[in-house]
Design goal:
CATH topology: Nucleotidyltransferase, domain 5
Strand order of the largest sheet: 1-2-16-8-3-4-5-17
Number of strands: 17
Structural class: alpha+beta
CATH class: Alpha Beta
Distance between the termini: 38 Å
Number of domains: 1
Largest sheet: 8 strands, mixed
Order of helices and strands: EHHEHEEEEEHHEHEEEEEEEHHHHEHEHH
Length: 375
């Protein structure tokens, strides 16, 4: 494990690992100021495997198309083993003027390849288990996250052929800190979404509950008498960190289940990018420093040995408004009757192959149904 002294990367990584930054002069000045002030930022470690920094940097070509693996985990206090709750591929074409977020269904049934080093013989099950099989051995939280991401990356590589140029891991507590540092984000809600974790008490105050999935039907429990579940009603509004993260976690009450949740998670990432690159944040050094601190505590990063500055200058043309949200299976369920797990259809696999080959932009022109509504 090592820590870099580059707070710029911390600010950029608050989009869940996306190396996105506007190219205005004010942004560059603010970034240079932060670089000069900060002592430490994000924890960096080997998340994908492949040897030391020098060996990895030699094979990490970011002059062409770039693919980054973003992993979100819901690590509660006392948890020792984790599954990947959110799996996103951030694809940037070779023009470096656009970025795409591709959510991978966590219920995708796949072959998870064996890993002798991690004492794993391989398995066929839902892809979110890949992270678990890497993280289950004893070790520190950082070591567990590193091993889990490595097995997950190997699984995605096996089924898509994508070689990742970098990776980032964040838990939901980290996302909460970042959104709080931003002062909330603007979100647009398309359909009523009932929370599985938060309620409103008799006085109209927000209260924390817990989701009991050991009963049928599963339900929100632990609320004070007279409380009701929080329902996120349709409309556009500013949301604080607690509400924004809650909204991005909901799937049971959505018409489109996990596909709806994927879209909301992508939407939240885009909202974070937009707020983080707004003039109100970039011109406020106090807020920037708070943001850098939150991001530095939230993320674990692997740049594959490529200097952070190289990422910045190569990808500085990508802005928040150039972040396009992509849905597999065109956002519809393709569930196996035998296993109850999700399968990616032939077109979705073609879409991932296009990300591998750097031709995703062309694929989306021909298949616009894979582009999600960003609101």
């Amino acid at each position: 494990m090592r820590r870099r002294k580059d707070p710029l990367w911390a600010r950029l990584l608050l989009v869940a690992g996306a190396v996105l930054v506007v190219s205005s002069g004010g942004t560059l000045v603010a970034a240079q100021t932060l670089i000069g002030q900060a002592e430490e930022s994000i924890t960096q470690t080997d998340l994908i495997g492949g040897g030391g920094d020098a060996a990895r940097a030699e094979g990490n070509d970011i002059d062409g198309a770039v693919n980054l693996l973003l992993v979100g985990i819901d690590a509660r206090e006392g948890d020792q083993d984790f599954r990947a709750d959110t799996i996103i591929i951030l694809h940037i074409p070779k023009t470096h003027d656009q970025a795409y977020l591709i959510s991978i269904p966590r219920d995708w049934m796949v072959e998870i390849p064996p890993n002798e080093e991690f004492e794993f013989d391989g398995s066929t099950e839902k892809i979110n288990a890949a992270f678990y099989y890497g993280s289950r051995l004893p070790g520190t939280a950082l070591e567990k996250r590193g091993r889990g991401t490595e097995v997950l990356a190997a699984t995605l590589r096996k089924h898509t052929g994508i070689e990742f140029n970098g990776a980032a891991v964040i838990d939901f507590g980290g996302f909460h800190s970042i959104v709080h540092a931003l002062g909330g984000v603007d979100m647009c809600i398309a359909e009523p979404a009932e929370s599985a974790h938060l309620g409103i008490d008799a006085k109209g105050k927000l209260v924390q509950g817990w989701y009991n999935d050991q009963v049928f039907p599963p339900r929100l429990e632990g609320l004070p008498p007279g409380s009701r579940p929080l329902v996120h009603e349709p409309g556009c509004r500013s949301m604080d960190a607690t509400r924004a993260l809650d909204y991005a976690r909901i799937r049971k009450s959505l018409d489109n289940g996990d596909y709806g949740r994927q879209q909301h998670q992508q939407q939240l990432i885009k909202a974070i990018v937009k707020k983080a690159t707004s003039s109100g944040v970039l011109t406020d050094l106090g807020k920037l420093n708070e943001l850098v601190k939150a991001a530095g505590e939230a993320f674990i990063l692997d740049t594959r040995g490529t200097p952070v500055a190289d990422f910045f200058f190569t990808l500085k043309g990508v802005a928040a408004n150039d972040l396009t949200l992509i849905k597999t299976n065109a956002g519809t369920f393709n569930t196996s009757a035998e296993t109850g797990a999700e399968q990616l259809d032939a077109e979705s696999l073609q879409m991932l192959a296009a990300a591998k080959d750097g031709t995703l932009s062309t694929f989306l022109i021909e298949h616009p149904q894979y582009i999600a509504n960003s609101r």
